[in-house]
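FAQ: What does a ligand-bound record look like?

Like this one, built around adenosine-2'-monophosphate:
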Amino acid sequence: MNPPQEMHIEKPRTRRLFFALWPDEATRTRLAGLLKALPPPERHGRDMRVENLHITLFFLGDCEGGLLPCLDEAGAAVRRDAFDMVLDRLGVFERARVQWAGVSRPPEALLRMQDALSLALEARCGMARDSRPFAPHLTLRRNAREPCAWPESVPPIPWHVDAFVLVESLNDDEGVRYRPVRQWPLRQDETAIHRV
Ligand code: 2AM
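The answer part, i.e. the structure of the complex:
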């Protein structure tokens, strides 16, 4: 009897994707300043690459390419307003050992747009929502244990959020790199424009 032949089963190419808020350049520069002003990482602690900093809205994980049109539709279905927020606090998720920057008061508009996005992804693409409540945070450092206070040398960081993005997680020579692949604008407040 012939020995069984090795079979090569082609796996469909998948892309690791998530929806996120992506800081503009000015906000990102201030975040770089915040990272620099933090006490040095503990043993094994690792700062995020500045160009990767973001707030995750909905984590999708490994997706087949065929899902993209549906993600496009879901993103386009989110017609919400732009909003302002201020990053003004630091925290640690102890189990995940993630140190993050966040907001003392998450804007209602952020919670509503994240909810609208989750609903659209659920209804149009069959994506299951995270069972945990949305906890907006921007990961600064991994393998961190100790909480620390917002550095006195860094003022709270304002951020005008006028878009959200679909991001692909890739690997390059320096490790993980996040690359926005789609962007949807949020509506500007027309009344504010008329008032000027
Ligand atoms: P984190 O920063 O809190 O680790 C890309 O990996 C982004 O998706 C990160 O912001 C990460 O959140 C988030 N993420 C990774 N795995 C996840 C999961 N299983 N559930 C929810 N979010 C996840």
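Follow-up question: can I read anything off the structure? Yes, for example: The chain has one domain: 15-194.
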